[in-house]
Design brief:
Radius of gyration: 18 Å
Low-confidence stretches: 70-76, 252-262
Mean pLDDT: 77
Number of strands: 16
Largest sheet: 9 strands, mixed
Structural class: alpha+beta
């Protein structure tokens, strides 16, 4: 069976140390790495996920969005938009031959959406039209070792790539961090964005990790003058989404920082 770990939140997740440390701990317990990965459209940190990671190459021009920007398109923490010719190529890690069923390209579907095409291992191209009612689109891709995606018309916003192991034996880590983000911004992305985000990774064996609070203490409480009660309400809103998704949610803290984790 496969254990899928979904980590989201601030820079503690977007940086490599937390997820890499978790990966090392699971390996030390004798649990194999199934090499399932969530590849974000983060142009700076795409290759800083749990190692060995798949190789990601961006072509053309992509413009990133953050979870706290007006043009944010969930559920990924850091999507990016590109025009004709913008491309992404993902090559599977040498440690694993390919990804298997349930691997998908996530994109924003909206009334002004353009088109992109994808292919695996040099096969025939498949075109996807992202024009439609506002929401998250999913294009399931075939098994293989090299995935190519290219924008062919208009502007396309990609939220990321869910790459599932062909064997699905061991653990997979889906790292979805956004440095600088705060709890309320994940709320705003929010009842719909966060819930949809978790639905993408829905599996019987799912562990959700959330890192947040540091930016809230600095920006929301000190700079913006929010009260403790307001901050608590924002935390509760996140938990309501999680409780709607799962029968049981356990709240704990990291030993070194005392940061709440799920």
């Amino acid at each position: 069976a496969e254990l899928v770990v979904v980590a989201f939140g601030d820079s503690q997740v977007s940086r490599p140390h937390l997820c890499n440390g978790l990966r090392d701990a699971l390996l030390a317990l004798g649990i194999p790495d199934a090499y399932g990965r969530f590849v974000e459209m983060d142009l700076q940190t795409a290759q800083k996920g749990p190692m060995p990671a798949h190789t990601v190459t961006f072509g053309g021009t992509w413009n990133e969005s953050d979870v706290y920007e007006p043009d944010y398109a969930g559920p990924a923490r850091k999507p990016a938009s590109g025009g004709v010719g913008a491309s992404v190529t993902i090559t599977a890690a040498a440690s694993t031959p390919d990804w298997g069923a349930d691997s998908t390209v996530l994109y924003r579907r909206h009334s002004a959406g353009g088109s992109f095409r994808w292919r695996v291992d040099g096969s025939a191209w498949t075109t996807v039209n992202t024009n439609g009612a506002e929401g998250l689109g999913e294009a399931e891709v075939s098994s293989g070792g090299v995935l190519e995606v290219e924008v062919t018309a208009g502007t396309v916003t990609l939220s990321g790539f869910v790459l599932q192991s062909a064997s699905k034996r061991g653990f997979s880590i889906m790292k979805c961090g956004n440095g600088g983000s705060r709890i309320e911004q994940h709320d705003n992305a929010g009842a719909a964005g966060l819930q949809r985000h978790l639905e993408v990774f829905r599996t019987p064996n799912l562990l959700v990790l959330m890192s947040a609070g540091g930016n809230d203490a600095k920006v929301a409480l000190l700079d913006e003058g929010k009260t403790g009660a307001q901050a608590a309400a924002e935390v509760e809103a996140v938990f309501e989404v999680l409780l709607d998704q799962f029968a049981a949610v356990r709240l704990g803290t990291t030993p070194s920082r005392g940061v709440p984790v799920l």
